[in-house]
Design goal:
By secondary structure, the chain is an alpha/beta fold. The protein is 45% helix and 6% strand. It is built from 21 helices and 9 strands. The chain is globular, with a radius of gyration of 26 Å. It starts with a helix and ends in an 11-residue tail after the last strand.
């Protein structure tokens, strides 16, 4: 590492102090070999500052070695303070970003680090996310074995309980359907469309499809949730009505590391807990969720100019969606004399909270359906799949864009050169999740998505078209897609700015509100499609699956899990 860097530094003509920098690096190497880490700690920041004056291309070659030196220094400084820390640093050196970051978090949580060392580790974690994202460009990902792609498509298209509502082609298997079909005659055709209209579900996604094309028991579940959350004004203000407040802001730990899909699935668990406890779930409009906080006038000028002001004073998810309840946070706090001392939910103190009119929760408090659904689900949905079923039902209710959001999405369709009505029939959706997802799941390159699309077109529904809609944060995916546009396939995507960054990097670059609105547009377009190729290790792919099953009435269409996570019987 040292010799190679010395040669590189000596060959950089743009740097006026090349010889000085090479000498400084040589000195740092000698200090490191001698174990003089205090000296390294003193000089390394100066060296990094000098490297920042080099052209970007040269910085990109030099900084990995400098960052490795930093990690060596941290491990040496930790000594007996942090075995998990050193283990994490070794993982990072090997490019094992997921294991490394997990070990760093474990070190912060469990090990007695000095304040100075803790501060350094806290700064190292975000840079590691960026490093992971930088390696996830589409061209850097290894191709999948074709046999795995074939198996993924087979799992989605093998005979199942429901036939395509178009009446042509094979039946498709849905991973939540029971082994036997519910009687389609139990509910008249178009019953679901009327129900969705009454409950305010996403109008642009609702279609007049037979009830049998929806996820089993959807009408029962949606009606139950609505009745639980939408109560009379007098009941909202009654001292007898109890509430659960879901906290989704950075002040309560929901920070920039949580993507939109992750945050929405936190709400599904909060809703499950509220129903379990017989409480009404509400959000705080002043939550300051990062995806609902408008940019300030003094934001960094270096960020993209596309940032928009949209939410105003409502800094919760209800900036974008219809209120979760007819009750408000004011109703919940109406009889509270000390709202600042509101108690937090925990399993250990559940019995102590029964009498409290209002309690609050954060994160993932109830990872299972409410017990009120237990009898309904027995013999209908396999026990291992009931959490997935519940999440789908909860998302169908939670993700109901308000009028302001729907108008904004319509305007963006025009701005980005997309059809102003639904995408053409037979379009196949692909959501290619890269960014920092490689920390926790195997990434899939775009060519493998297209291989799956080809196989699906040949072996699946013959009414599918050679037309693919692509959503992704990775600009290199769109570069990879261009060669497919020269064949018989047509590739479609929203013509918006992208960056292959971790979640907090996207928020920093584009702003949380802009990221949310563009993501909702891509979500709407994806659900408009008639088949899907996705990785269910991604919360976003689960959102697509949930909305197409519960709201769009396309539960019996092909959904290929190319990431091999949950169609193979994984436990959630």
């Amino acid at each position: 590492m040292g010799l190679a860097l010395l040669v590189l530094l000596a060959s950089v003509p743009a740097c006026r102090s090349t010889e000085t920098m090479a000498s400084a690096w040589s000195s740092l190497l000698q200090d490191a070999e001698a174990g003089s880490w205090d000296r390294v700690h003193e000089l390394l920041p100066r060296f990094k500052h000098a490297v920042s004056s080099l052209p970007a291309a040269d910085q990109g070659q030099i900084m990995p070695a400098v960052e490795k030196m930093e990690r060596m220094m941290l491990c040496a400084q930790a000594a007996n303070q942090g075995s998990a820390l050193c283990q994490g640093l070794r993982h990072l050196d090997a490019g094992e970003w997921g294991e490394g970051i997990a070990s760093l978090f474990a070190s912060l949580a469990k090990e007695q680090l000095s304040p100075q060392l803790r501060n350094q580790v806290e700064r190292l974690i975000p840079s590691s996310y960026y490093s992971a994202a930088s390696e996830s460009a589409d061209s850097n990902i290894k191709p999948m074995d074709k046999s795995r792609v074939l198996l993924a498509v087979k799992n989605a298209t093998q005979p199942g309980s429901f036939r395509s509502d178009r009446g042509i082609g094979p039946s498709f298997k849905h991973h939540l359907y029971p082994s036997r079909c519910p009687d389609p005659s139990s509910e008249p055709d178009h019953h679901m469309a009327k129900l969705h209209g009454a409950l305010g579900h996403w109008p642009e996604l609702v279609s007049r499809r037979p009830s049998s094309s929806y996820l089993h028991l959807t009408s029962v579940a949606q009606s139950f949730i609505w009745k639980h959350q939408q109560i009379s004004t007098s009941t909202c203000s009654s001292p007898e009505t109890k509430f659960l407040v879901a906290r989704l802001g950075p002040a309560h730990g929901v920070g920039a590391g949580s993507g939109i899909g992750c945050v929405l699935h936190m709400v599904t668990e909060s809703l499950a807990l509220a129903i379990q406890l017989g409480r009404v779930l509400v959000l705080d409009p002043a939550d300051k969720n990062l995806f609902a906080t408008d940019p300030s006038d003094d934001d960094d000028d270096n960020v993209t100019s596309s940032r928009v002001k949209f939410c105003g004073a409502i800094t919760s998810l209800e900036c974008f969606f219809l209120p979760l309840s007819s009750c408000s946070i004011e109703d919940a706090l109406l009889h509270e004399t000390q709202p600042a001392n509101m108690k937090w939910w925990s399993h250990d103190s559940a019995s102590d909270l029964v009498a409290d009119r209002v309690i609050q929760t954060v994160g993932n408090p109830w990872p299972r359906p409410p017990d009120q659904f237990r009898t309904l689900l027995e013999g209908q949905i396999n026990e291992a799949q009931r959490l997935w079923w519940w999440n789908a039902q909860a998302i169908g209710y939670i993700v109901r864009p308000n009028q302001k959001t729907r108008l904004e999405l319509a305007q963006r369709r025009k701005r980005y050169g997309l059809p102003t009505t639904r995408l053409p029939p037979g379009t196949i959706s692909t959501h290619v999740r890269h960014g920092d997802k490689g920390i926790e799941a195997q990434l899939v390159r775009f060519d493998d998505y297209m291989l799956a699309a080809q196989i699906l077109k040949e072996q699946g529904d013959p009414q599918l078209a050679q037309r693919v809609f692509v959503s992704t944060e990775d600009p290199s995916v769109l570069e990879s897609s261009r060669k497919w546009n020269t064949t018989d396939w047509r590739i479609m995507y929203a013509n918006l700015e992208r960056a292959n960054l971790p979640v907090f990097g996207l928020i920093q670059k584009f702003g949380g509100v802009e990221e949310m609105l563009n993501s909702l547009l891509n979500l709407q377009l994806a659900v408009e499609c008639d088949a899907w190729i996705c990785t269910l290790s991604s919360n976003w792919c689960r959102l697509i699956d949930e909305l197409r099953s519960v709201v769009a009435g396309k539960a019996n269409s092909a959904y290929v899990d190319i990431g091999f996570r949950c169609f193979q019987g994984c436990k959630l």
